Amino acid sequence: MTLPLVILLPFIGAVLTGWVARLGRMQAAWMAGLFTLLAVLALVPCVPLTVAGETVLWRLDWIPTSGLNLAFRLDGLGLLFAAMILGIGLLVILYARYYLPERDGLGRFYAYLLSFMGSMLGIVLAENVILLLMFWELTSLSSFLLISYSYRKPESRRGARMALTVTGLGGLALLGGLLLLGDMAGSYDLLIILTQGEIIRAHPLYTPMLVLILIGAFTKSAQFPFHFWLPHAMAAPTPVSAYLHSATLVKAGIFLLARLFPVLSGTPEWTWLVIGAGLTTLLVGAGIALFKHDLKGLLAYSTVSHLGLITLLFGLSTPLAAVAGVFHIFNHATFKASLFMAAGIIDHECGTRDMRRINGLWSFMPYTATLAMVAAASMAGVPLFNGFLSKEMFFAETADFSSGFDHGWVLPALVVAAGVMAVAYSLRFIHDVFFNGDPIDLPRTPHEPPFWMKAPVAVLVAICLLVGIVPALTVDPLLRMTVASVLQAPPPDFDLAIWHGFGLPVVMSLVALGGGLTIYALRRPLFRLAARLEGWLDARAIYEWVLAEMLLFARWFTRRLDSGSLQRLVLVLLLTVLGLGVFGFLGSGSPLTGTRSLLPVDGVSVAMTAVLIVVTLATVALHRRRFTALVIVGALGLLVALIFIQFSAPDLALTQLSVEVVTIVLLLLALYFLPQQSPRESSNLRRTRDALIAVLAGLGAGALTWAMLTRPFTSISDYFITHSLPGGGGANVVNVILVDFRGFDTLGEITVLALAGLGIHAMLYGLRLPGLTQDAEGRPWNWDTHPAIMAALARLLLPLALLVSIYIFLRGHNAPGGGFIAGLITAVALILQYLTNGVAWTHQRLSSNMLPLIGAGLLIATLTGLGSLVFGYPFLTSSFTHVHWPIIGDFELATAMLFDLGVYLVVVGATLLILIHLGLMHRATHPHAEPTP
Amino acid sequence: MLMLNTALAVAFGCVTAAIGLTVWRLLIGPDQPDRILALDTLYINAIALLVLLGIQFNSALYFEAAILIAMMGFVGTVALCKYILRGDIIE
After folding, report:
1. Can you tell me the distance from the alpha carbon of A107 to that of A687, in angstroms, rounded to the nearest whole number?
2. A781 CB within 8 Å of a chain B CB
3. Neighboring chain A residues of B8 at a CB cutoff of 8 Å
4. pLDDT band at A890 (very low <50, low <70, confident <90, very high)
5. Same domain flag for A59 and A149
6. Which residues, in sequence order, are bridge partners of residue A294?
7. Which residue among A50, A508, A517, A681 has its CA within the 20 to 30 Å range from the CA of A436?
8. What is the pLDDT of residues A230-267, one digit of tens each?
């Protein structure tokens, strides 16, 4: 089955297009178009079945225990949306090629656009609702990237952030709603959910579930009161507006309403909430659209209004209203996308979008003007254009719905009022822009755009006309198929025709047209009134106020918990732990000393322990003299390593020794920029109190260790010790755990290490700090940067150290060692060269760019893991064999060793990257000293 | 064997005493080079201790740790000395 390919191909295309874009704009556009076409081709084999009325399903168990399956479905609704996403996507790719300025590489744009396309296809083809939610969130993310495409402009960043906040909030609500829904239906698969309508509607949690799902749908489809993000998202380049904000993204919420229509609709809660939101949005959007002077602003609010219209239709809950809703989804996508593209052409040609300045373009660009006027007429609902048909169905449905209520005239009246405003703003779009005198003070002289920029508009406008004139021949079958899948029942009887005979809908249409003309004629006093009301009840202001208040609250709350003083935090932590520990111990009633007998004590261990204690106390006493403290800490590290050796933890000891040196180097690098002494800041009383608490905490930890070590204790280590050799092929349990049993953890850890390295690389990039000009006693630094004897000696050490590290690496699987320790040894050996021979000398022989090394390491480790998938084993299963080599003897080869190689490379790369970058921070301010005579 | 055991016991005593004295020097200084030298000597004493342990328990693992200390200790000493010399250790 090719269904998953439809979703996968745009994502693959995104990566490839981003890569190909460096060859040129044309290549990028072709690559993006090619992958969209491939996705279309992948969709084609499934179409005949869907047209025949079946639902094409494809499924793969993913996490079946959680009800999460990688499952896709293609039914009529999905097909309609997929066709719109892919079809308009292709046109937008073509259009964007000519719209975006020449200096733009297009790679980033197409990569974002294709990943959005893939996410959107995922929403409409998902069979599992949790999967649907994941794609839902992906569209939020990819549209964030697209809106902020011109990220240097503050309004782009603000618009993108607002869209992400609002739709992200909706996504969270939707997650809750879908989890409830799946819980009620007993499955997260739509196949089952769609049959459980009655059970779900009768469920006690139906209302909270509905509200959560509706919040998700309304935020995405810009329904009141969440409508305000959409106009601000118009900071995106126009192709994005044409694609996301008219045809696809904003329809996702409505898609969800249509998808869950058979399950959720028909209850009073649904009717009131959905009709309420839809009607308010319809009116508010149309009202604001009329007064926008910005061309895209007008279209944005008109989109808000039309989305409200469709939502209102689904709120009516009748089958015929669903037909009208689906029909208007299609019509709105065609005429609004073409209008956005036309607006983009006008913006492109005039250099402004202000309708008070753009006038009389008819004489400059008659072709574009004709196309835009047809689309605008369709938006107004003029007969012979597709918008008329769905709008008349809309009028008919609202009139029909209201006839059963007292005051039933209210809804139709309000709906006609919205229709009046729609006609008025459409008329304004046509008359202000293309007629109404001459242009005023345009930055550029407009002329017809290139042919290929008009072509996508022409295609869409042609569809508007065809559907508008011969609906029965063009859109009828598509509509029936879609409605059948929305209703999960045979479609109701409906007749798509331009003339249904004289009735209420015709009157409503006529009133809308006549009223719109009148309002437009009266526009000047109305604009003056609007200018006075501007800023009144601005949804954006409310949003920003809420956001600011929330941030203030969060800051206040954090401050309450964390005063910024580490001492305070440690104090609270230690006291809590002490209190809980003492409470727990006293409550248990068990003795401190367990049943195990004590081991014999030898003199050397006692002496070493005594030395360790003395050195620790000395570190505390001398900690204000930082360099001295550092030297003593070095001794402390050595003593701890000796203890590890004594207690048979050779891996730990080797690691401790290597880490110790790296730590000393790191601290010395930092110390260079810091004061050499720690000032005394606390009072004596406070220090005494802190010392007392520290001693108590130490005693507590000691007592705990004592209690644990004197008791018989079995841990999970027996399992690993038994299975290490037969299961992982290595005798060194520690290493086998790292690269085999817990290989996935290790992969995560080296990824974190690589990210930390990258983060430090990014933060320190270009940073130059002033260092000390003299040492702690006020003497100037020595002139000899790299003493010759030391340099020569260190060079000799390098091959020896590398030999040891290779040895430790190779035998790591069976004896103490492995990639991590070997990597540290190599890194330390190379750092020694930096220390003694200097950066310049080392960089002549060793690349200064560590990023490829880190990347290669991660890649090797991941590919090794994936390799076992190829052979049908779980991720990162190790396989091994023992070979006998001459001279060397019996030798074991394991894929784990390849994985360990990845670990090794990442450790070497990240360690060097971090230390060398810290070391180079002051290159500019610390010139090489000249020898003093 | 008795001879070796006696020698080992004496050597352990000497090395332990050496460690104690080195730590004393590490703590009293008086100058930074004194401390660095003390740390380096401590590394060497640790190597000696490990080799003695290796002889006592007849195990090669101690020897490897000793090699590693020899290598790593040197790097630590170089880094500390470089700081005294130039402040800026990687330049």
Report:
1. 60
2. yes
3. none
4. low
5. yes
6. A354
7. A508
8. 888 888 899 998 898 888 899 999 999 999 999 998 89
pLDDT band at B1 (very low <50, low <70, confident <90, very high): low
Q: How many CB pairs under 8 A join A and B?
A: 167
Average pLDDT of chain A to the nearest whole number: 87
In contact, A395 and A416? CB cutoff 8 Å: yes
pLDDT of A931 reads: 46
Digit-coded pLDDT (tens) for B38-81:
999 999 999 999 999 889 888 887 888 888 899 888 999 999 99
In degrees rounded to 5, what are phi and psi of residue A404? Answer: -85, 0
Question: In this complex, which of A631, A642, A669 lies closest to B35 when CB atoms are compared?
Answer: A631
Same domain membership, residue A302 and residue A236: no
- Partner A contacted by B67 (CB < 8 A): yes
Q: Tell me: do A160 and A272 sit in the same domain.
A: no
A43 touches A117 (CB < 8 A): no
A875 CB neighbour count, 10 Å cutoff: 14
Residue A924 in this model has a pLDDT that exceeds 50: no
Residues A346 and A425 placed together within one structural domain of the fold:
yes
What's the predicted TM-score (pTM) here? 0.74
Distance (Å, whole) CA A866 – CA A872? 10
Distance, in angstroms, between B84 CA and closest chain A CA? 7
Mean pLDDT of A164-192: 93
pLDDT computed for residue A325 by the predictor: 93
pLDDT of residue A221: 92
Both A69 and A144 in one domain: the answer is yes
- pLDDT band of residue A495 (cuts 50, 70, 90) is confident
Q: Are strands A68-74 and A889-894 parallel, antiparallel or unpaired?
A: unpaired
Inter-chain touch A771–B88, beta carbons under 8 Å: yes
A545 in a domain, yes or no?
yes
Contact B85 A603 (CB under 8 A): no
Which tokens in the block code for residue A609?
A: 């322990």
Residue of A nearest to B48 (CA): A642
Residue A151 maps to a domain: yes
- Residue B33 sits at the chain A interface (C-beta within 8 Å): no
Can you give the residue range of the structural domain that contains A442?
265-521
pLDDT number for residue A925: 43
Contact A386, A334 (CB under 8 A): yes
Q: For residue B12, list chain A residues with Cβ-Cβ distance below 8 A.
A: 603-604
Q: Is A511 touching B (CB cutoff 8 A)? A: no
Number of domains present in the structure of chain A: 4
- Shared-domain flag, residues A145 and A287: no
Instruction: Please indicate if any CB of chain A lies within 8 Å of the CB of B1.
Output: no
Same structural domain for residues A248 and A269? no
Kindly identify which residue of chain B lies nearest to residue A611, measuring between CA atoms.
Answer: B20
Residue bearing tokens 């060497």? B44
Q: Would an 8 Å CB–CB cutoff place B59 in contact with chain A?
A: no
Report CB contact under 8 Å: A835, B82.
yes
Give yes or no: residues A464 and A324 share one domain: yes
Instruction: Report pLDDT digits (tens) over A781-838.
Output: 888 888 899 899 999 999 999 999 998 888 877 777 788 899 999 999 999 999 999 8
For chain B, say whether A297 makes contact (Cβ under 8 Å). Answer: no
Judge whether A667 and A630 are in contact, CB under 8 Å.
Answer: yes
- Collapsed DSSP state (helix, strand, coil) of residue A715: coil
Nearest CA in chain B to A651: B65
What ipTM goes with this model?
Answer: 0.95
Q: In A585-630, where do the E strands start and end? A: none
HEC string for A41-105: HHHHHHHHHHHCCCCEEEEEEEEHHHCEEEEEEECHHHHHHHHHHHHHHHHHHHHHHHHCCCCCC
Residue A23 lies in a domain: yes
Q: Identify whether A460 is part of a domain.
A: yes
Nearest to A638 among B16, B43, B90 (CB): B43
Chain B residues within 8 A of A923 when measuring between CB atoms:
91
Q: Are A342 and A371 in contact (CB under 8 A)?
A: yes
Which of A628, A782, A800 faces B85 most closely, judged by CB atoms?
Answer: A782
